Amino acid sequence: MRYDLSELTLLRCSNCGNDLGGLSTDVIFYCSECGRCWISDERLSPVDIEFLRVGGSDSILLPFWKVDASVTMQDRISRRESSTTGVSGFREFTGREMGLTESDSGSRKVRFIFPAFSTSLVLSTGVRMYRENYLPEKVEHGKRFRVIGGSVGKDDAALLARAVAVGVEVTRTDYLASVDLEIEVHSSSIYAIGCTPDKNVLRINGSEIGILTTAINDCDEILKQDRQFTG
Ligand SMILES: [Zn+2]
Questions:
Q1: How far apart are the CA of 197 and the centre of ligand 1, in A?
Q2: Where are the domains of the chain?
Q3: Contact partners, residue 219, CB within 8 Å, separation at least 6
Q4: CB distance 157 to 65 below 8 Å
């Protein structure tokens, strides 16, 4: 059986029957008629959505995953700056002799926010949003918003959350030798966050974080569809 694009037009909101538009790779669909958001898996499942930093008429709403999880550090070994470990001789040195320390055992609750649209910068953006302690201060509402380009499904979001957690550890300022962590996802939902085109980036409103437009796979399509909707 062959699928073609015309099948996408059959996607209708399970709540109000409105057509759910989007790019051919989208799996996240926001119904601008009734304000429900859906994830397309084998069928449409509802997912919570919140709108943040919507901004002015030149800003567009991009979908991000908000994943709340417990991160358990199984093993985290860092290397002291002054250690000299170049020559190990004839025997195995213990970790402590080689200037290694273990720390950060135990579990902590963490929120990860990272792009749900396709970009080669999903991990670095997620790490930056984590490090800037990215906590949006105000949630807005509006049925007529348009959210397209969401192509990262729920299962992939859980995998990416773990990768961001590892990335956060790697970019800490000590000398990381190895890290092994487990992540348990408690809830995942969508943040639609206003971003404004600024030279060669889409800048998250109220943030220093810009995502290179050339790194966003469907950037032209997203901008075009957004313009059609608002124009
Ligand atoms: Zn609807």
A1: 29
A2: 14-230
A3: 202, 213
A4: yes
Residues in the chain: 231
Enumerate residues 6+ apart whose C-beta is below 8 A from 106. 72, 73
Tell me, in angstroms, the distance from the centre of ligand 1 to residue 18's CA.
5
**pLDDT per residue as tens digits for the range 116-131:** 999 999 999 999 999 8
Gap from CA of 21 to ligand 1 centroid (Å): 11
Q: Which residues pair with 69 in a beta bridge?
A: 110, 185
pLDDT digits (tens, 9 = 90+) for 74-92: 777 777 654 444 443 444 4
Full-model pTM: 0.82
How far, in Å, from the CA of 152 to the mean position of ligand 1?
Answer: 21
Alpha carbon distance 130, 122 (integer Å): 12
